[in-house]
Amino acid sequence: MLKECIKEAKEQEYIIKRISLSEEELHGKDMTRLEFDEVCFLRCKFSECGFTKTNFINCVFEECDFSNCVFTDSYFKKSKFTNCKGTGANFTKSVFKECVISDALLDYANFSESSWENCKAENTSFKEAFLSEVSLKKIVFHKADFSGADFFKTMLKGIDMSSSTITGITLSNSHKELIGCKINPFQAADIAYLLGVNIVNYDE
Q: Which domains does the chain have, with CATH numbers?
């Protein structure tokens, strides 16, 4: 069904709207510049597909796999990702507005130069992900795993990272990205290590 929708949308330049797609599987499909509005993707699998400059408005992705797909310059608004897998996916320069990501696996994904506003990510893994030069506004991270993630030139001021894992993150030499960021006492030890500070136990 999805293949036919994509073909017609490309030929007639219309928006794919208000449909539910279940257990669709596509490999190497070009979906560049398409528009999806109020589309529900359930247990769909996309392999090496291209979504460059594609718009997703009011869409739902549930138990989907889009690992290694390309979403460069794409736009997501009021969309939800639940129990999805996007390992190694490329979201460079994409825009996320009023989106929710939960229980997802986004290890090694590339979000460089992307923009996030009024979004929430919870119980989601961003291990070794690229989050450099990202614009973050009114973001909630709850129990997210950023182990080994790259936050180079991504300002975290005012963002609460206290429930998330930030072990081994990459920052600039000045560590300016952490100014104003909220962390818990246990995370402070990891930050101290980044700053070259040695923490010792004081025994009177």
A: 2-194 (2.160.20.80)
pLDDT at 197: 61
Q: Rounded to two decimals, what is the model's pTM? A: 0.91
Could you give the angle at the alpha carbon of 30 between the alpha carbons of 48 and 28, nearest 5°? Answer: 30
CA neighbours closer than 13 Å in the CB half-sphere of residue 61: 26
Please write the tens of the pLDDT for every residue from 67-97: 999 999 999 999 999 999 999 999 999 999 9
Helices and strands, counts by H and E, the chain: 2, 16
Q: Is 1 exposed, middle or buried (0-12, 13-18, 19+ CB in 10 A)?
A: exposed
> What is the distance, to the nearest Å, from the Cα of residue 177 to the centroid of all Cα atoms in its chain?
18
Which residues, 6 or more positions from 178, have their beta carbon under 8 angstroms from its beta carbon?
Answer: 156, 171, 191
115, β-bridge pairs: 95, 135
